[in-house]
Amino acid sequence: MARLTRYSKFEGELDQLDSSELMQMIQEALLGQGMNDPYDPDPNTRPSMDDLFDAILEALAERNMIPEDLLMEAMQSEDVRETKLGEQIQTLMDRLQQDGFIRKEFEDGEGGGPGESGESKFQLTDKSIDFLGYKSLRDLMGGLGRSSAGAHDTREYASGVEMTGELKNYEFGDTLNLDTTATLGNVMGKGVENLQESDLVIRQAEYNSSAATIVLLDCSHSMILYGEDRFTPAKQVALALAHLIRTQYPGDTVKFVLFHDSAEEVTVSKLAQAQIGPYHTNTAGGLRLAQQLLKRENKDMKQIVMITDGKPSALTLPDGRIYKNAYGLDPYVLGATLREVANCRRSGIQVNTFMLARDPDLVGFVRRVSEMTRGKAYFTTPQNIGQYVLMDFVTNKTKMVN
What we know:
Strand order of the largest sheet: 7-6-5-8-11-12
Number of domains: 3
Largest sheet: 6 strands, mixed
Number of helices: 13
Shape: globular
CATH superfamily of the largest domain: von Willebrand factor, type A domain
Oligomer: single chain
CATH class of the largest domain: Alpha Beta
């Protein structure tokens, strides 16, 4: 349970909190590692209602929102849940469920009705995921100024799509998006009656392309080692990207793959409460699964956004066994990983890597990946990875053509 600390008097009433305000207060707890034991062998274990109670209690305490009388009673009690403060927190939890932000379940039953055995668990609903995605996007983009999110740019130009490109002389086959000023300038001296095809100037339009994106997210154990949680910011970025694509790029698709000892696709709702998985980093397995998912997409642009902090250290063998070596860059693991990168290149898939570490071996590995697929490599921190990923997606400065 969260430790209860004495704070200054709060003049408001807890029952004035609406569900959206409460969700915003506990966002970090919902997405972070605190809801589950990171050493639990089952990374898919769902958080409990007790975890939610503790998260709300801690959020209220951190914000000095516990009224003095309730605080004094709770501090003198052996169990906060049996106090008036506990009752009010339970009311807030019930409100989250009534307003459709969480779905309560029971470990040993499906309905969650009275009398069922098992510890009560909860899941985030689609409404909750949408809220968290929007909130993450707003927070991450807020420091970057007003961003106009339109369609993706490519190197190709096609007249007649959106006239925002450069001027060019008309060529047979072009759509006649005539730039009147430039064309008249060419015939001012000789008269309009002497207009020739070579005098025509059109304004090129940027070719807008839909994209299929796979977010390849490292959830190996190193993502929470050394006193720093890198996994929670990475999940926030993924949720923000999902919300951005859904609201601003309706023609695009985005899917999510977690990789650790092996790799698996997860839905955006499962992603929000995903936890750190087994220890090792099977980058080759993640890339292989991402390629399989992209093959099903009929899009002009296909890309993998890989977020990781570690070197490849695991490999799925042909018989299904996992080969592991956490010491250095194992040539066997590295070779298999780079073969998957080469397969991405042959399939026209760009791999953009966001590396949360600066180990020299990792720098060399990431550079090879980027060079092989004409992708980009960013060496970032948990504090700025969101800006890098989102702005890279929006501006797409390294432009792809398939």
